[in-house]
Amino acid sequence: MAIRHFKPEIWNAELIVQLRKSLVFAGPDVVNHDYEGDIAEAGDTVHISSVGDVTVGDYAGTVTYDDVDDAGDVLVIDQKKFWGKTISDIDKAQALNGGAVVAQIMSQAAYRLADTADQYVASLYTQIASANVLTAVTDLTSSGALTTADQIGEACYDLLVNLGVVLDEANVPEEGRYVVVPPWFHGTLRKAHAFINIEKAADGGAALRNGTVGQAAGFDILKSNNCFQPSAGSTYVVQAGTPMATTFANQIIKTEALRDKDTFDDYLRGLHVYGAKVIRPDALACVTVTRPTSGVAAIQ
Q1: How far lies 144's CA from each of 147, 149, 296, in Å?
Q2: Which residue in 108, 119, 214, 253 is a FRET match for 9, CA 20 to 30 A apart?
Q3: What does the pLDDT look like over 52-106, one tens digit per residue?
Q4: Which tens digit of pLDDT belongs to each residue from 140-195?
């Protein structure tokens, strides 16, 4: 930066930071990190071992034996994301010697990397077992019988109940069940009397986590703007399951500060590698819902 750009101004220590979404899909309520291990570089492979099912037969004096087949899976760390930022000496001098600006850059970089990973994990809904994908709901008011806000909210609640039944029939444990919904769905759901707000829970909401907004139909309800949209428009995937279904592994490989040999600038950069895989497709369920744009269901 040329010296003529220097302005004798006072820079406030309180920086204006970017608005941030709640990151849910790559969080501990939705995925597990059981196989993260030691990840050194992108392209690393994590082998997940498991044992196949056991056959039970009628005993008639002879026992037959199953082979121990390795029914394992493979998690490939195939996602590589970088960030980079230039900081000039003059900029650093005017911003409290660079301390506040550098700290905010690092914080924003960490968030952007996490947000990118969150969206990637959300896209894995296509790996859900086909039997656990409910029929798409194109219009919550299509029956004609839903005429009040409470009825629309009840329809949303019914969808959660149906997702729970799918998981029950797949023998998925009830403990730790979650459902991730877009904000408009949550807003509609809150119009239903059946909805149980987490603030009314026994712990008074003390267990509130990032993105968690309530409990209903046996689920912790998580709200996210990263709910996958299969196509442009107002269609969203509502996903339910338990953390046992999806595994996620990630590592910040490098965070470096470099000096430009030709200018008085510094460079900051970082590299994030990760991978995710649905290892229990039958422990997830989903439904595709179209956001109402008119009538009592619309959230303006």
Answers
A1: 7, 13, 12
A2: 108
A3: 678 888 888 888 887 766 556 888 899 999 999 888 775 665 554 556 777 788 8
A4: 765 555 566 777 778 888 899 999 999 999 999 999 999 999 998 988 887 776 66
Rg (CA), the chain: 24
Written as six digits, the tokens of 243 are: 């953390």
Task: List b or e across 9-35, with b for residues whose CB sees 16 or more CB atoms inside 10 angstroms.
Answer: eeeeeebeeeeebbbbbbbebbbbeeb
**What order of strands is seen across the sheet that includes strand 265-278?**
79-88, 265-278, 246-259
Q: Where are the beta strands (DSSP E) in the chain?
A: 45-48, 73-76, 79-88, 178-181, 196-197, 212-216, 219-223, 235-241, 246-259, 265-278, 284-290
Paired residues of 179 in beta bridges: 221, 240
In the chain, the percentage of residues whose pLDDT exceeds 70 is 72
pLDDT value of position 109: 87
The rounded distance, in Å, linking the Cα atoms of 141 and 293 is 11
CATH number attached to the domain at 134-245+282-297: 3.30.1930
Residues near 28 by beta carbon (within 8 Å), at least 6 away in sequence: 243
**Residue for token pair 């149980």:** 196
Question: Looking at the predicted structure, is the pLDDT value of residue 199 above 50?
Answer: no
